[in-house]
Amino acid sequence: MVIDCLMLRDNIVESILGKTTQKRKSRIPAKLDFLQSATGLILSIFITLHLLFEASIIFGKDSMYAITKMFELDFFIEGGSPIFVSILAFIIFAIFILHALLAIRKFPRSYREYLRLRTHAELMRHSDTNLWIIQITTGFILLFLGSIHLYTMLTQPANIGPFASSDRVYSDMFWPLYLMLLISVVLHAGAGVYRLIIKWGWFDGKKPKENRLKNRKIVKIVTVIYLIIGLFSLITYIKIGYEHQNSYGERYKVTSK
Amino acid sequence: MKIKYTEALIIGGGLAGLRSAIATTKRGLDTIVLSLVPVKRSHSAAAQGGMQASLANSVMGEGDNEDVHFADTVKGSDWGCDQEVVRMFVQTAPKAIRELASWGVPWTRIKGGNREVVINTKRTTITEKDEAHGLINARDFGGTKKWRTCYTADATGHTMLYAVANEAMRLGVVIEDKKEAISLITENNQCYGAIVRDLKTGELTAYVAKGTLIATGGYGRIYKQSTNATICKGTGHAIALEAGAYLANMEAVQFHPTPIVPSGILLTEGCRGDGGVLRDKDGYRFMPDYEPEKKDLASRDVVSRRMLEHIRKGKGVKSPYGEHLWLDISILGREHIEKNLRDVQDISKTFNGIDPADEGEKGWMPVLPMQHYSMGGIRVTPKGESVNIKGLFACGEAACWDLHGFNRLGGNSVSETVVAGMIIGEYFADFCSRNDIIIGTTVVEDELKRQDDYINYLLSLNGGEKIYDIKDRMRTIMQEKVGIFRNGKDLDDAVKELSELLEKTKHITVSNKCRLLNPELEEAYKVPMMLKVALCVAKGARERKESRGAHYREDYLKRDDKNWLNKTITYWKNPDDLEPSIKYEPLDIMKMEMPPAFRGYGRKGQIIENPLSKKRQQEIDRIKAEHKGDRFELQEKLMPYNLPNGYKDRNERLGVGYE
Amino acid sequence: MSREITITAFKYNPSDKNSKPTFAEYKLTETPGMTLYIALTKIKATIDHDLSSDFVCRAGICGACGMIINGKPRLACKTLTSEFKDGKIELLPLPTFKLIKDLSVDTGSWMKNMSIRVQSWIEAHEQTDITKIEKRVEPEVAQEVFELDRCIECGLCVAACSTAIMRKDFVGAVGLNRVARFQIDPHDKRTDSDFYEIIGDDEGIFGCMSLLACEDHCPKNLPLQSKIAYMRRKMVKA
Asked: Residue C204 and residue C49: Cα distance in Å, rounded?
C-alpha cells in the first residue's frame, strides 16, 4: 500500500508539473517512441518470414506440411505439438497489441483533427504524407482483422496444414478476410519499414536526400514482390480448398517419402 | 485610452534596435522593442556579404588595424563623415564581431594552409598561417585596403540578426511585433515615447518612456527601384521629422552596383569581392579601364556611376527592361559558388532562370545599379541623441551618426548596426537611468486623441485622388529625377512635383472605411510621411551644388571642400508646410584626423580644395614627427574621442597582441 | 505573349463581425518574370485595396510570405506565375498559425513562443572577453552550424507537418532543427540531457512522425530529415 501510494504521488507530481519529482522530464516518452519502432520492426520481420513460410504451399503441399511441422517443433518432440504455435501466436499477439497501443497515439483523435489532416493531405498531395494516411488506414484495419487471425491461431493451432488451412480459407470463408489482411499487412509493414529507416536515419549516409529516394524505391519493390507472393499463395490455398471442399475436415498425409 | 509605461522604448527590431535593447536590458532597464514585422524578418537579414572589422586573421588582412579601417571609411565617405564617430566605430567593430561569435554567429573560419582564390580573374593560391586556423575569415570588399569583411557565406545579416534576436530573447527583452509607431510624444523639445498602432488589430496605444530610440532602417522605398525590403519606407524618419527633429544629409543615397534586373534583388558585393567581374554587351571587362587600381572593387558610388557611364557609351545590353550589364561569377567555379554564394545562386536561378555557376556567358547575371542605402537620417550626436530633441535617440541606418558621410563602404553598414547598438545603447541607457518621465497624462492623451482624429480625418476625406497613384508617382519622380546622375533642373521639377503630391494627399478618398486592418488606410497615412522624406532628399540634393560621394551633380562635377564641407540639415517647421526648411552644419577640418584629399579612386582633379585642408595636414605632420609613443597615443593627440563600457580597450590581434 | 491569369485568394477578416469567409477571384495580365509578390502587389494597388498579405524582403530571405499555393506551402515571393500552365493559382493562408486577415497569418508569435520554448540561444555559462582573439572553431564545424542556422522561420515546415496540423503544441521541424543547431555549436555548453528537458516529449522530438513534408517544402533545403533523426537518436539515449 505504501509503495503504491508513493508511486501515485510521483504520478500526481508529474501530471501537474509535466516533470518528475526530480524536476526533470520523464524518460517514458523516449522509451515509448523507441518501443513503437522496436515492436514495429519485430512485427515486420515476423511478417516477412510468415509470408515466406506460408508461400511454401506454392511449392507443393509437402513443403508446406514440413514447415508446419517444423513450427510444431517436430525435430524436438516426436510428431510435434501445436502448443508451440499457440505460444508463438500469443507472443506475437502481445507485441501486436503493444504496437497498436503505441501507434494509436499518433492517430487523429477528434473530428477537427481528422478534418484538418484530411484536408491538409488532399491539398498538399505529398507522397510521404499520403503514405502515412495509408499506414493509419491499414493499421486500423489490421487492428480488427489481425486480431481475428491471431485469435484463431491462438485457439486452433492444430488447424494449420495444407488441407486444414485451405479448408479454412475456402470452406470457412476466410479468404475475403485473408485477402484484406494480406494487402493491409504488406502495405503497413512496407510503409512502416521505410518510415523506420527515415525516422532513425539508418541509411542516411553522406547524401540523405538521395538515399531516401533509393530506400523508398527498394522498399516499394520488396512490397510489391511480397504482395505478389502473398496473392499467389492465397490463390493456391483457395484452389486446394475448392478441390478439397467435399473432404472438409480431413487432414493432410504426406504422400511421397 | 490605452497607455503603457516603460523605461526604454526602442522603435525598430532590426540589428541596431535589438542590440540597443540588449544594452538597456543588461543595465536593468525595462525595455520594449516595437517592430513592424517579426524581428527576425527585419531587413538586416538581407545583408549578404559581410561585416567589416579589422581582425587581421587572414593572410590577406595582415597589417590591418583600426587605423587602416578608419582611413578606408573616411575616404569612402568622401570626407563627409564625422571622423570622431568613425574612430568610435572602428575601435568597437572587432569587439562586436567577437561578441557575435560568442552569441553563435557561425562565422566562416580560416583553414590553415593553401587555399585557392580568384584575384583579378586569375586563380591564385594563398597560404593561411597555421596559427590562424579556426579563426574568423574575411573576404575582400569594395574600397578597402585589406580583406576585412567577415562573413557567413552570403547570409551574414541573417545569421547576425538571428544571433542578436536570440540573445535578446535570452535576456528577456520584451519584443512586440506588428506594431507601428505613427507619431512621437513630445513636450518642450523632449521626447517621451510614441503613439503606436497595432497592425494586428488597428488599435492605438500610447507608449510612454523615459527615452525613445529610433532604429527603423532606411527609406529606400521612396524609389521605384530599390534593393530595400517593402517595409523600408522611412516612417521612422518621418515621425522624427514631424516631431521637429533634424534630419541630415538626406540626399546622400547609395546606389548599389549589382542588383539583379528586373526584380531589383541584391546580389552581394561579395560576388565581386570574391573575384567576380562586370562585363558589357561584348563580354568585355570594362572596370579596369576606368579604375585601374581598384577595378571592380572601387567604392559603390564610383562603380555605379562608371557602369551608367559605360551604358551611356552604348555598351549596355538591351533587354525588355531597358539596358543592363553583366555580372560574371562563373569564373569562381561551381564549388565556391555553391558554398559561399549560395543565396546569390538561388536568387539568380529562381528569379531569372540563370545558374551563375554555368561556365561562360550562360552564367552571367543581368545587373543594374539601384537604390540601396540611406546614408542620411536623424541627425544625432556621437552619443546617438538627436541634436535638437532631448530623449530621442537614433542608431543604425535610420540615424545620421555619421559614419558614412556621402558614401558607405560595403560591409560597414551591417557592422554599424551592431556597433552603434553597443555604443549608443549604452548612452541611451545612461539617459534612461538618469531621467524621469515628467510628462502629464493629458499631454499623452492629447497626442493619442490627435492621432485618433487624424485617422478619422483620413477616412472622411473625399477628394477622389488615389493614394496608390500618388505613391507610384512619387517613386517614379525619385527614380528619374533624384537618381545617380542629378541636375538642377530635374531636381527643381522633382521638389515642385513632390510638393504638389503632398498637397494632393489631402484630397484622397479611402474606399474602404474600416478603421481596423485596412491596408488602404495604412497607405493613406504612410504615403504623406514618405513624401516628406522624399522632399528632404530632393530638396537637399537640389541645394547641394557640388558632387560628393553618392551625390553626383552633372552641373557641379567637383567636390567642393571650400563651400560644401558640411551637412545638410532638413526639418519641418510647420505641420502644414509643403517643403522642408533647410540649413547647414559645417564640418571642422581643423579637428579632423585626416583632412580632405583625393580618395585614391574615382575621377581625378575634381576637387575644389579648402585651404584649411593643407594647413591641418601640416599640423598633423608636425604632431606625427614630434610624436614618441605608440599609435594609440598619437591618435589621442590628433583627435581624442570617448567610448563607454570598456569599448575603447585595445583589441588583440594574431601575431601582434594588443599593439 | 502575355496571357491572362486567375488568382483566387481566401478572404476573411476575423476582427470584423460582418466579414464572411470567401474566395475572391482576380484576373490580371501576366508580365514576364512575374512573381506572386508582383501579382499581389498589383492586385492590391489596382483591383482590391482591401486584400492583406505579408511581404517584407520579396527575395526569399526573410520568410514572411509563406502561403498555400495550389495546395502546397511555399514562399509567394519566390513563386513565378509562369510555373502554372493553366494560369490558375489558388492562395490560402498557412494553416496552424493564427489567421490575422486574408492571407496574412501570425507566424511571428508562433516563432517567438517556439524560440523561447526551445531556448533558442547560446548557453555559454561564461563571460567572453571581447578584446581577446575569438575562440577557435573548426571550419567544418562552423560550416555545419551555418547549414542549420540558415532557417528563416517561414513556417512552411510547420504548415506542411501532419503532426502540427493536428496537434497545436508540436514544436515543429523548425524547433527541432534549432535544437540541433545549438547541440552541435561548440559555443553552447548544454548537454544532451539538457536538451532532453526541452524536446524530450510527444510535443517535441517524439511527436515527429518522419513524414518529411518539412524537408520537402523547406525553401532553404535544410537537412531536416537527417538532423531530426540525429536528434531522435541522441534523445533516446539522453
From this structure: 41
In Å, how far is C213's CA from the nearest CA of chain A? Answer: 7
Range of the domain at A121: 28-247
Q: Specify the DSSP element, H or E, that contains C92.
A: strand C88-92
Judged by CB atoms closer than 8 Å, whether chains meet at A120 and C165 is answered as yes
Instruction: Using a CB–CB cutoff of 8 Å, tell me whether C63 touches chain B.
Output: yes
Domain count, chain A: 1
Check A106 against C71: CB less than 8 A apart: no
Is the CB of residue B413 less than 8 Å from the CB of residue B400?
no
Q: Determine, yes or no, domain membership for A14.
A: no
> For the purposes of burial, counting CB atoms within 10 Å of the CB of C179, is it exposed (0-12), middle (13-18) or buried (19 or more)?
buried
Number of residue pairs across A and C with CB atoms under 8 Å? 99
Q: Which is the catalytic residue, given B256, B551, B616, B653?
A: B256
Which chain C residues are within 8 Å of B646, Cβ to Cβ? 131
Q: Give the pLDDT score at A77.
A: 83
B495-520 exposure pattern, b = at least 16 Cβ within 10 A, e = fewer: bebbbebbebbeebbbeeebeebbbb
Is B256 marked active-site?
A: yes
**Which residues of chain A are within 8 Å of residue C223 when distances are taken between CB atoms?**
208
User: Chains with ≥3 Cβ pairs under 8 A against A?
Assistant: C
Test C216 with A126 for CB contact under 8 angstroms.
yes
Longest dimension (CA), chain A: 70
Q: How far apart are CA C205 and CA C178, in angstroms?
A: 12
User: Shortest CB distance from A132 goes to which of C196, C209, C236?
Assistant: C209
**Alpha carbon B5 to its chain's center:** 31
| Phi and psi, residue B55, nearest 5° | -80, -30
Per-residue pLDDT reduced to its tens digit, B553-582: 999 999 999 999 999 999 999 999 999 999
Residue contact A116–C223, C-beta within 8 A: no
CA of B29 to nearest chain C CA: how many angstroms apart? Answer: 21
Which of B16, B10, B80 has the alpha carbon at shortest distance from B395? B16
Per the CB < 8 Å rule, is B166 touching C122? yes
| Within a domain: A21 | no
- Between B and C, how many residue pairs show a Cβ–Cβ distance under 8 A? 210
Q: State the DSSP string of C167-236.
A: -TT--HHHHHHHHHHHHS-TT----HHHHHHHH-STTTGGG-----HHHHH-TT---HHHHHHHHHHHHH
Q: Do chains B and A have 3 or more beta-carbon pairs under 8 angstroms? A: no
Question: Has residue A149 been placed in a domain?
Answer: yes
The C-alpha cell 527633429 sits at B245
CA–CA gap between residue A65 and residue B13 (Å, rounded): 76
User: For position A68, which CATH number holds?
Assistant: 1.20.1300.10
Binned at pLDDT 50, 70 and 90, residue A257 comes out as very low
Q: Report the 10 Å Cβ neighbour count for B463.
A: 11
Mean pLDDT of B58-65: 96
Closest CA to B94 of B54, B46, B134, B56: B54
Q: Do A125 and C95 touch (CB under 8 A)?
A: no
Question: In this complex, is the C-beta atom of A28 within 8 Å of any C-beta atom belonging to chain C?
Answer: no
Q: Does the global pTM surpass 0.90?
A: yes
Is B542 marked active-site? no
Of C24, C67, C65, C63, give the one whose Cα is nearest residue C47.
C24
Judging contacts by C-beta atoms under 8 Å, the chain C residues touching residue B133 are: 136, 139
The amino acid that residue B180 corresponds to is E
Provide the pLDDT confidence category of residue C15 given band limits of 50, 70 and 90. confident
Task: Provide the CA B589 distance to its chain's centre, in angstroms.
Answer: 24
Q: Which amino acid is at B345?
A: Q
Compare all CA atoms of chain C with the CA of B348 and give the residue at the minimum distance: C59
Q: DSSP alpha helices (H): ranges in B27-173?
A: 66-76, 83-102, 156-170
Residue A10 within any structural domain of the chain: no
